[in-house]
Amino acid sequence: MKISIMGIDYDELLSGKALAEMGNEVTYVSHDNKRIANIKRGYYNVDEAMIIKSLNPDYSIDFTANIKAALSNSNMCFISEGITGDSSEKLENILQVAKDIGANMTSHMFIVDRSSLEVSVRDKIKETIEEELTKRNVKLTFELISNPNFLKA
After folding, report:
1. C-alpha span between 106 and 96 (Å, rounded)
2. How far is CA 122 from CA 27, 98, 111, 113, 118, in A?
3. Per-residue pLDDT tens for 90-134?
4. Is residue 129 within 8 Å of 94, Cβ to Cβ?
C-alpha cells in the first residue's frame, strides 16, 4: 500500500516506521522545504534522531515537499500536519491540508484525520476535499477516518 503522511513529527515518524516495517511504501510530506532538506541531509531534532537513524534502508520511506507527487497513486493519507497549536490555528492548517488532498489525489483514498478537534471538523474536512474535487471536475471517492493522535496508530 502507498501511504502519504502529511506532517512530520515524532509520533508520525513512529507510525510511518511501523507501517513501512509491514511492507507499505511511506512518504512523509511537509510544506516546509527547509525541513525536508534538513532531514535528507541528516539534520533533525534529538527526539527524531533515534527514529530516523533506525530506519532500515530497505524500507520504502521518503520525505518530500511535493504534495502532488506524494499523493499520486496513494491509497491512504494521514492528515498530521498542523495538528498542534491553538484550535483555530489547527483548523486552518487541517483544512489547508484537506484542500491540498482534494486538489491532488488521483484515485480512491482512505484519509485519516489525526487531529483531536471536535467531531464537526470531520464534516468540514470532507466538504473541503469534495469542493476541490468538484473544482477539478473529477469524480473520485474517499473514506474519511478519524484517528486522533492520542490514539496511537
Report:
1. 18
2. 23, 10, 11, 8, 8
3. 788 899 999 999 999 999 999 999 887 788 889 999 999 999 999
4. no
Q: What is the pLDDT of residues 18-75, one digit of tens each?
A: 999 999 999 999 988 998 998 888 888 888 888 888 888 788 899 999 999 999 989 9
Residue 85 C-alpha cell reads as 497549536
Q: How far apart are CA 12 and CA 52, in angstroms?
A: 11
What is the crossing angle of helices 10-21 and 46-53, to 10°?
A: 10
DSSP string, 117-138: S-THHHHHHHHHHHHHHHHHT-
List of domains in the chain: 2-146 (3.40.50.720)
Residue whose C-alpha is closest to residue 5's, from 22, 27, 31, 21: 27
Beta bridge partners of 27: 4, 62
